[in-house]
Amino acid sequence: MATLNSNYLKLKAGYLFPEIARRVNIFAEANPEAQIIKLGIGDVTEPLPEACRTAMIKAVEDMGDRATFHGYGPEQGYLWLREKIAAGDFQSRGCDIDASEIFISDGSKCDCGNILDIFGKDNTIAVTDPVYPVYVDTNVMAGHTGEANEQGEYEGLIYLPISAENNFTAQIPDQKVDLIYLCFPNNPTGATATKEHLQAWVDYAKANGSIILFDAAYEAFISDPQLPHSIFEIEGAKDCAIEFRSFSKNAGFTGTRCAFTVVPKNLTAKAADGSEVELWKLWNRRQATKFNGVSYIVQRGAEAVYSEAGQAQIKALISFYLENAKIICDKLTEAGLAVYGGVNAPYVWVQTPNGLSSWDFFDKLLYTTNVVGTPGSGFGAAGEGYFRISAFNSRANVEEAMKRITDNLKI
Ligand code: MLT
């Protein structure tokens, strides 16, 4: 009989968001009249920017004419999009990133997992706790961990606790780690990192030969002009970091699918024979073998993000969600809850009241207010006693959810 990848059997029951959906479905079936408001998964609700839609419609028309039809595109993405990204997201902020270092993909969740294809099996890996579960689960699947303990922590991973005490920014470890996942603005806590904090990580990574896997999917939500948007704004980062970006949250592409990963050309890791090899070459080889690129139509839509109209429209979208986040922070504070994040990020991280566990608070909120959030413990053991509320929803739903919470939740 064929054998399976038994690493999958180490995974905890289900991926967090399907598990939430399962519980919500049970509730909805038993309470068909309930008007459930979902502030759980960070999925956008507002329509695609007009500039993107117009560009995609035009691209569909291109596909209907032999002269402008497109078959397979470059696996790395079309150069016209990569050049816009290099100029618009990096060079404009003083980062020395070239179009050839940008790889277009169908999502940064996918890339965060796929990147492990090009790393060895014996790296020591550090994640924050709480953390976006994809970093952990993909390492489990790849066989980089042992079994999980009762708290759900996997043997072999190094967990760096983040909490209100350290402003949700991890302390640089004393020991040497090879791969470090950082996410700023942070999912799930909504925390941000200063240039100084990121510089400390880059200095650590350079001193130890480590690679930082930097998830900047939420960078567009940074409104504080002092905060860096990219790890490549930090001196020396091109020697030690890979960055993941997405059009999902800034331009509403969660259902459309487009993202990109930046792998600097000079970034190297050690081969078994001790030689240093450029990771760019391996990632390029990996993509060319396992990926056929994002559709021409979607890439044209993403390109429109960099037009004048596109920029204005995504700014308006981001401001809209940030205003939602502010309403959530204000109302929950008024209700007596301790809240974090939600200022330069679309997530509000809430301490559960009266010592309730994260899942107990999830149930209480669902059953008393019909509002869905995400239990902090789903992001790691140190997330226990916290709860994440997403600002991705309509204004009416956010206001209604907050009204239900302030009216009904006795804290
Ligand atoms: C979340 O809710 O954490 C997001 O949906 C993550 C993602 O974009 O995959």
Automatic annotation (TrEMBL):
Cofactors, names only: pyridoxal 5'-phosphate
Alphabetical GO biological process terms: lysine biosynthetic process via diaminopimelate, diaminopimelate-aminotransferase pathway
SUPFAM superfamilies in the cross-refs: PLP-dependent transferases (SSF53383)
Aminotransferase class I/classII large domain segment(s): 35-405
Keyword Transport in annotation: no
GO molecular function: L,L-diaminopimelate aminotransferase activity; pyridoxal phosphate binding
Functional pathway: Amino-acid biosynthesis; L-lysine biosynthesis via DAP pathway; LL-2,6-diaminopimelate from (S)-tetrahydrodipicolinate (aminotransferase route): step 1/1
Any Pfam family: Aminotran_1_2
CDD domains: AAT_like (cd00609)
Top-rank EC class of the record's enzyme: transferase
Residues found modified as N6-(pyridoxal phosphate)lysine: 249
Keyword NADP: no
Residues that coordinate or bind pyridoxal 5'-phosphate: 72, 108-109, 132, 187, 218, 246-248, 257, 292
Binding residues annotated for substrate, in chain numbering: 15, 42, 109, 132, 187, 292, 388
Keywords recorded for this protein, A-Z: Aminotransferase, Pyridoxal phosphate, Transferase
Documented EC number(s): 2.6.1.83
Recorded catalytic activity of this chain's protein: (2S,6S)-2,6-diaminopimelate + 2-oxoglutarate = (S)-2,3,4,5-tetrahydrodipicolinate + L-glutamate + H2O + H(+)
Similarity comment: Belongs to the class-I pyridoxal-phosphate-dependent aminotransferase family. LL-diaminopimelate aminotransferase subfamily.
Role description: Involved in the synthesis of meso-diaminopimelate (m-DAP or DL-DAP), required for both lysine and peptidoglycan biosynthesis. Catalyzes the direct conversion of tetrahydrodipicolinate to LL-diaminopimelate.
Subunit and interaction comment: Homodimer.
Name of the protein in its database record: LL-diaminopimelate aminotransferase
Originating organism: Stanieria cyanosphaera (strain ATCC 29371 / PCC 7437)
